Amino acid sequence: MRIHNIYHDADGVSHFRDIEVDWLENVRSSQRSAVIPVTGMVFRQNGGDYALDWHAAPRRQYVINLDAGVKITVGDGESRIINAGEVILAEDLSGRGHLSESLGEALRHSILIHCD
Prior knowledge:
Number of strands: 12
CATH superfamily: Jelly Rolls
Number of helices: 0
Oligomer: single chain
Order of helices and strands: EEEEEEEEEEEE
Radius of gyration: 15 Å
Distance between the termini: 23 Å
CATH topology: Jelly Rolls
């Protein structure tokens, strides 16, 4: 299972990298990871026509797209389409951050899971 990780380097430039979930155990025909401590959760809805200018993540958080995708561009110029069902770990807490824009006209529902 891949997680799109957005992080910043020592110069404050944001980048993507992929993180693979480490499976810790098999339980009743499923694999499970270790427990990840979290501090809160927010449900979010974005309109189908948004385009957020450069912004850093407000905290270390997972973003889980539920029903629509998003195009994210990081500081080094790489862009990714992150579809429904995919997970982002936002860790670009300083520097210029990243751009986010809607795909099409669909509402985007997501869950933000705070890790700070």
